[in-house]
Write a structure and sequence with these properties.
Belongs to the glycosyltransferase 2 family. The chain is built from 11 helices and 14 strands. By secondary structure, the protein is an alpha/beta fold. Helix 2 (48-55) links the parallel strand 2 and strand 3 (60-63).
């Protein structure tokens, strides 16, 4: 029997994103079938709420009392949403007709699939993959995230090479389908992350307890990207380095933990040195601030680590590249996942 999309809630978390709501919300309302469309607002001050109330009365509005960030904003909003499936959708995403059906059909066919993402293309250059998610997320053995279709700053042209259905390691938070019972059962997104890499942490926790994370290239959406923080923003640098390290500490099995963290510290400091040479002194300082923050809050991260099951033999998990993507990209000049 076909899946009833009325059991799906498309939830957009908004914070001062009026321009994106004006441009992209119409496509979500028009092309999401019978899915419930919800905007959860993180105490915006740019007129977003008034715009929604006037122009989209059919869209349910959840008003949060302050800016809780991406992670806790979604956690608080989704406590108020009843549905079988949630779609966490960024406000700067254009969706075409029929974008939900292939993914919902896939998840209905396999109850072991907890999370799934579509193909993520660039809104500005739709012939290319977009940075945040591309053709599905992977990790290397040191925990560096990358995507099929995107290695660091290199984006592949979409030539149908990822028009497949594939188990991956992590799905992008820009457009993430997730079973509601799994979302709540795992405690939602890590609130201390605030934003960035929270979807990797969530997917890793889901995989550690036996669920699958999937990519379905038969569905596609178009993402602007960098809508809240530009990629060169020191705040984003801080969050990426802090959260990337915490991600490993929370989820790696014990026998792989210490050696991996030591190597990551060394590589992080090398990255900071490269930033200094490039004149990005504020970004370099953000890397050091990230390490200092981790030390200050070590007791919190220790408690978070104890909460979760750590599946052994991390490099053997589906979606993990058994090597160093940093070495392959920067030293061996490999530019696509298929060349690794």
């Amino acid at each position: 029997m076909a899946y009833n999309p009325a059991h799906t809630a498309v939830v957009i978390l908004n914070w001062n994103g009026l321009r994106f709501l004006q441009e992209f919300l119409p496509s979500v309302v028009m092309h999401s079938g019978n899915c419930e469309v919800i905007v959860a607002d993180n105490a915006s001050t740019d007129g977003s709420v008034a715009f929604l109330q006037e122009h989209f009365p059919q869209v349910r509005l959840i008003l949060l009392d302050q800016n809780y960030g991406f992670c806790e904003g979604y956690n608080k909003a989704l406590q108020q949403v009843e549905a079988k499936y949630y779609v966490l959708l960024n406000s700067d995403v254009h969706v075409p007709q029929g974008w939900t059906e292939p993914i919902l059909a896939l998840m209905e066919a396999d109850e072991n699939i907890a999370v799934c993402q579509p193909k993520i293309l660039s809104q500005q250059h739709p012939e290319f993959f977009e940075y945040a998610g591309a053709g599905g997320g992977m990790l290397d053995t040191l925990g560096y995230p990358f995507c099929r279709g995107r290695l660091f700053e290199t984006l592949e042209e979409d030539k149908g090479q990822y028009d497949d259905v594939q188990e991956i390691f992590w799905a992008t938070g820009a457009c993430m389908f997730v079973r509601s019972n799994v979302f709540h059962g795992l405690g939602g997104l890590e609130p201390a992350f605030f934003a960035h890499m929270e979807e990797i942490d969530f997917c890793w926790r889901a995989k550690n307890v036996g669920y699958k994370v999937m990519y379905n290239g038969h569905s596609k959406v178009y993402h602007v990207g960098g809508g809240t923080l530009h990629k060169s923003n020191p705040r984003k640098t801080f969050l990426n380095f802090r959260n990337g390290f915490a991600l490993l500490y929370k989820n790696l099995p014990g026998k792989e933990l210490i050696s991996t963290l030591i190597l990551r510290v060394i590589l992080d400091w090398i990255a900071a040195f490269r930033m200094v040479l490039a004149g990005q002194t504020k970004d370099a300082k953000a890397v050091l601030d990230a390490h200092a923050d981790l030390l200050r809050n070590s007791s919190y991260w220790g408690k978070q680590r104890k909460k979760h099951y750590h599946k052994g033999n991390f490099p053997a998990q589906t979606g993990v590249y058994r090597g160093s993507v940093v070495w392959e990209y920067f030293v061996r000049q490999k530019r696509t996942v298929r060349n690794l």
